[in-house]
Specification:
Keywords: Membrane, NAD, Transmembrane, Transmembrane helix
Protein name: GDP-mannose 4,6-dehydratase
Structural class: alpha/beta
Number of strands: 15
CATH superfamily of one domain: NAD(P)-binding Rossmann-like Domain
CATH topology of one domain: Rossmann fold
Shape: globular
InterPro entries: Epimerase_deHydtase (IPR001509), NAD(P)-bd_dom_sf (IPR036291)
Organism: Roseburia zhanii
Pfam families: Epimerase (PF01370)
CATH class of one domain: Alpha Beta
Helix content: 25-40%
Oligomer: single chain
CATH architecture of one domain: 3-Layer(aba) Sandwich
Order of helices and strands: EHEHEHEHHEHEEHEEEHEEEEHEHH
Length: about 350
């Protein structure tokens, strides 16, 4: 087990992508911790998907934060690709812990809209790294830990499963995956050159209430409710390591408090205080089983009628460009270092999503 070497109490924490799915849930969990702290959130609130969901997440944060007198919450609407804005936030607030979750998401969107991936995922992350670097200027304490989102997409079409962080990941099959691998390489370089403790987290197919509408379970729900046909890729022969958002957030929270240690090598130079972990359910589910459980829970929640003809609304189709047939996380390192393994069952997670969907849309 890694020792916790960072206390979040009375610290300033910067969460980028704070109106996003994982970011908003992380902020709410930090508020629930009941510790005095200052949380700064930034998000550009782009319209890649329904902005009303992002606004809903922010309203939940505002409600929770308002009940805490010992906690400061501030939201900044802006892009991490805006270097001046990021510099200003670091200069004004001096965050001790930075969690970079801001990114242009989506494998398929990167095929037709590459520009936004370069802007957010590369230039934006570079700006975060540069501000972390300069946080130590003039003898300041600086950033104690940079935690950032990577993705299971970096594994590409690796044949060996489960995917381990020890595997080579040099063959991305989408620009999105390439930007996430680039993030890991950039972070490693900055950890080596400037002794910045950084940890990358490869997330595996995150789902749950108020999630991203571009994800399969959400898109399927919208189409089934509209009496449309859903397409199941690779003729259903896909497996995904679906990971419930609360499990992801618990993993992030534990990682935040245990930064890689700063050490000097035999050459008198810093050994990079750098780590990468998988966060996944370690139990890949067949896509056909997944959609079957989803439709059952949608019926239970009253989103679909009890006599819904599911078979008439599904179509098996070939694989899409950029997709991979299986994602499967080896989470041994996460378990050994943090004593944690995601454990929410797919049925429990989809039930909570279906109940939220009914409340939000119906």
């Amino acid at each position: 087990m890694k020792q916790q070497n960072i206390s979040l109490e009375n610290k300033t924490i910067l969460v980028t992508g704070a109106a996003g799915f994982i970011g908003s849930n992380l902020v709410m969990e930090l508020i629930r911790m009941g510790k005095p702290m200052q949380i700064i959130g930034i998000d550009n609130m782009n319209d890649y998907y329904d902005v009303s969901i992002k606004e809903y997440r922010l309203s939940q944060i505002e409600t929770m934060a308002a009940e805490r007198e010992d906690l400061s919450w501030r939201f900044v609407k802006g892009s991490i690709a805006d270097k001046n804005l990021i510099n200003q936030i670091f200069t004004e607030h001096k965050p001790s812990v930075v969690v970079n979750l801001a990114a242009q998401a989506g494998v398929r969107y990167s095929i037709t809209n590459p520009d936004v991936y370069i802007e957010s995922n590369l230039i934006g992350f570079y700006n975060i790294l540069e501000s972390c670097r300069h946080s130590y200027d003039d003898g300041q304490a600086g950033v104690e830990h940079l935690v950032y989102a990577s993705s299971s997409s970096v594994y590409g079409t690796n044949k060996k499963v489960p995917y381990s962080t020890e595997d080579k990941v040099d063959n991305p099959v989408s620009l999105y995956a390439a930007t996430k691998k680039s993030n890991e390489l950039m972070a490693h370089a900055y950890s080596k050159l400037y002794n910045i403790p950084s940890t990358g987290l490869r997330f595996f197919t995150v789902y749950g209430p108020a999630g991203r509408p571009d994800m399969a379970y959400f898109g399927f729900t919208n189409k089934l409710r509209n009496n449309e046909t859903i397409q199941i890729f690779n003729y259903g022969n896909c497996k995904r390591d679906f990971t419930y958002v609360d499990d992801i957030v618990e993993g992030v929270k534990r990682v935040m408090r245990a930064a890689p240690e700063k050490k000097m090598g035999e050459d008198g130079l810093p050994v990079p205080p750098y780590a990468v972990y998988n966060i996944g359910n370690n139990q890949p589910e067949n896509l056909l089983d997944f959609v079957d459980i989803l439709q059952q829970e949608l019926i239970c929640a009253g989103v679909l009628p009890a006599d819904y003809d599911f078979e008439a609304h599904k179509k098996l189709v070939p694989m899409q460009p950029g997709d991979v047939p299986v994602t499967y996380a080896d989470t041994k390192a996460l378990e050994e270092d943090f004593g944690f393994k995601p454990n929410t069952s797919l049925r429990d997670g989809l039930r909570k999503f279906a109940e939220w969907y009914k409340e939000f849309y119906m």
